[in-house]
Amino acid sequence: xxxxxxxxxxxxxxxxxxxxxxxxxxxxxxxxxxxxxxxxxxxxxxxxxxxxxxxxxxxxxxxxxxxxxxxxxxxxxxxxxxxxxxxxxxxxxxxxxxxxxxxxxxxxxxxxxxxxxxxxxxxxxxxxxxxxxxxxxxxxxxxxxxxxxxxxxxxxxxxxxxxxxxxxxxxxxxxxxxxxxxxxxxxxxxxxxxxxxxxxxxxxxxxxxxxxxxxxxxxxxxxxxxxxxxxxxxxxxxxxxxxxxxxxxxxxxxxxxxxxxxxxxxxxxxxxxxxxxxxxxxxxxxxxxxxxxxxxxxxxxxxxxxxxxxxxxxxxxxxxxxxxxxxxxxxxxxxxxxxxxxxxxxxxxxxxxxxxxxxxxxxxxxxxxxxxxxxxxxxxxxxxxxxxxxxxxxxxxxxxxxxxxxxxxxxxxxxxxxxxxxxxxxxxxxxxxxxxxxxxxxxxxxxxxxxxxxxxxxxxxxxxxxxxxxxxxxxxxxxxxxxxxxxxxxxxxxxxxxxxxxxxxxxxxxxxxxxxxxxxxxxxxxxxxxxxxxxxxxxxxxxxxxxxxxxxxxxxxxxxxxxxxxxxxxxxxxxxxxxxxxxxxxxxxxxxxxxxxxxxxxxxxxxxxxxxxxxxxxxxxxxxxxxxxxxxxxxxxxxxxxxxxxxxxxxxxxxxxxxxxxxxxxxxxxxxxxxxxxxxxxxxxxxxxxxxxxxxxxxxxxxxxxxxxxxxxxxxxxxxxxxxxxxxxxxxxxxxxxxxxxxxxxxxxxxxxxxxxxxxxxxxxxxxxxxxxxxxxxxxxxxxxxxxxxxxxxxxxxxxxxxxxxxxxxxxxxxxxxxxxxxxxxxxxxxxxxxxxxxxxxxxxxxxxxxxxxxxxxxxxxxxxxxxxxxxxxxxxxxxxxxxxxxxxxxxxxxxxxxxxxxxxxxxxxxxxxxxxxxxxxxxxxxxxxxxxxxxxxxxxxxxxxxxxxxxxxxxxxxxxxxxxxxxxxxxxxxxxxxxxxxxxxxxxxxxxxx
Length: 995
Prior knowledge:
Blueprint: H1 16-26, E1 36-41, H2 42-54, E2 90-94, H3 95-105, E3 115-121, E4 124-127, E5 132-138, E6 141-150, H4 156-166, E7 175-180, E8 186-189, E9 206-211, H5 229-234, E10 243-244, H6 251-261, H7 264-271, H8 290-302, E11 309-310, H9 313-322, H10 334-348, H11 368-382, H12 386-391, E12 393-400, E13 407-414, E14 417-420, E15 426-434, E16 443-450, H13 455-466, E17 473-479, E18 482-487, E19 501-506, E20 518-528, E21 543-555, H14 561-571, E22 585-586, H15 587-600, E23 622-624, H16 646-657, H17 666-672, E24 676-678, H18 696-707, H19 712-719, E25 730-731, E26 737-740, E27 765-770, H20 772-778, H21 781-784, E28 788-789, E29 801-803, H22 804-811, E30 815-816, E31 823-825, E32 830-832, E33 835-842, E34 846-852, E35 854-856, E36 861-863, E37 867-869, E38 875-876, E39 894-905, E40 910-917, E41 924-928, E42 931-934, E43 945-952
Parallel strand pairs: 5-9, 10-11, 14-34, 15-19, 16-28, 20-27, 23-24, 29-37
Antiparallel strand pairs: 1-2, 1-3, 3-4, 5-6, 7-8, 7-9, 12-13, 12-33, 15-16, 17-18, 17-19, 20-21, 22-25, 26-27, 30-33, 31-32, 34-43, 35-36, 38-39, 39-40, 39-43, 40-41, 41-42
Helix pairs in contact: 1-2, 6-10, 8-9, 18-19
Domain USP: 242-953
GO molecular function: cysteine-type deubiquitinase activity
Catalytic activity: Thiol-dependent hydrolysis of ester, thioester, amide, peptide and isopeptide bonds formed by the C-terminal Gly of ubiquitin (a 76-residue protein attached to proteins as an intracellular targeting signal)
């Protein structure tokens, strides 16, 4: 496939139903290693689906050319953006489906296809959306690097050969490879048969080739890229105070590892080598002891006291090998990694070598104490490990059938508690309101709406702020200068994301016939390129969208182009300067230019788009456009009534009424919308008015139709027109032309108009086309971009604060099961939406509390930044445990905090760090990948807290060494007690950027 996949001419596609059936069937095929799949912009694909499901090939939802603009980092290198998410930003289609879509719709000029290979990785086959991009160089010249992309399934030998080829290294020259991490440490790549995945090479790393000298020696014992080996070897620091190198989006793993590393009973178990006696190599549910051994190696390095930072490369490889979801270097959830790791360690260290089958029994009215003890004994018969000893507790689950009132009581073990956060039933939305008042700039409002509400609720909230009735509002999502979606009032607000640019337009008809049916029309702004091709028998312009679109309401019938042109002049009056009489031109000049143009175009008359053309009203021109990739933040629409410019408008109307109107003449109207534009390609199909003059009969019919709508002077002028174009003494030229387009702002489906009126049966999208010189002269871009902020935007966003106890209470609240997860009632013999209640029965030595900050419902998806106030000491669970017979053997219920995993960012990306208390000296530290800093206790409670690690007080040992005193003489890039101004919750100057 060539770099530019655009074929220049798409083949005639089959019927819409056939298109959908063919593509849908192809998308069902299984992944096979070596096959090619292609990335498609999700928005384009969704619009294509909407189009084929309409069943109307003339539908305004026609998607136009395949456009992956939003997937590229820039339009120069065409590199794929980082952190794109499948089925949110893009979809994957197999090669055959891609080539069909490409042949039917073509692709935007110069865009390369985003082809990706299916790779066979351990335990999975997947499309490798992000190949590994690494830098290659020679040790003799570290500054001269070249980037290259490799699959994770490629062997190191392929990298070795690539370096030889690029730097012209002889095949006979003896060499060795080193890989350099982002923190300048390096490792030797000894096994060339290992894969890129196995060696944990990630994007941004460098592979260096070192060539043996002629005398048989190597240039250095180690490449100079390494950290000073003397510093590393001689370093002695507090055990456990050690960073973890980020291997590429592995901060989630580093955060979880730091929390577990600072869990005393588990770390002491590995440091004392107790795990060696309990490795279970035969457990079919385990990982042959490999996860436990890899974890033990990391812990021993971190607690040796000899490392600034440890590279957990082998551990990462093992995790990806046994859990395919963690393959590669995409971002993941630290809680998901922790869950896998605890389960993997448990199975690798399970003391039960052969698990027996145990039938679970319901309580059936038996005492809770009896049922709980039975459940725990049964659990230990199958699960007995250091993980169970340290992290497992027991809770009581009570289910009640809503039909027969059957009560089912069971006791189940848990490894951590996932507690919900109190979720507000309201949502804050920011919108831009575009008033009908032409003097008013768009206004940005911050509104409070119900989370489960609909678009009408948004309009109602805005109505309370503006006084405009909701029925006069239209809500739209503006994306890349066009409407991505125009919402119906009954649609759920959950389909609107916080990052969407939402505009609300006040609607009112600006034409006559107020009692007739109205239609909402979308208006786009486009700029024509200077290029114009006269050799094709038609006009050819490139166009690009700019500015903000408009939504206006007009009568479905009896709205001419002249009506619409005048209406738009009023709507744009704030930032479009009107013509003045001095800018009119003489008839003779125009006739001379017209004759010259006819000679150049074989007699085809078309004067639209030239700055010196003279038109009485707007013309229409059929064009294909290329969208601009820049999204605007403000809307520049103006009202249909302009009290501030009435004087100018009256003068303009008087001037127009005193002159014969040429915009309504048949020939001129057809010439105005004559030729098409296909992004600087010839386009003449579907537009008969571009190269032929109409017959006198057609002119008479059209003139009669227009006489009914136009002023007497205009109708009189039209009657004087013979069968060819004539000119009056003086005539006003138009600021812009108008063209019917599809919802993307392109004109690829034969949308030209053949008379002076518009038909809104299937095409409510109109583009205002500006000549570049006219736009520069009359369109004030600075003014168009201006907007004002309502006082609601000045109200600071109040961060919600809740107590951890509130979250625990929610955890034990009665809830009704969801339809996707019903309970089978043994009495009713069917699935029921039973009520469920969880109660804590017994707690482990180390209790992990997972704060469920990521909320996914059918109404919304969000990251909750609520501050959860959690105690660092004396967390008392006595009020949450079910009452049992009190005796002296029961452990206390008070816990102290020992570690916190933090998440900064949103749903799609972010950064993980951790706080942890060192078991030896009692000092709190802040871990940010390879950086470690002192932390103060008052910094630990933040809105980023995600996982809380508590240890029961009776198991906490007193520090064996005194806490260190921060010193300015400590090694660079190591411990620092400096804090950043305005950085709430951060222990040091740590940048909270995404990985």
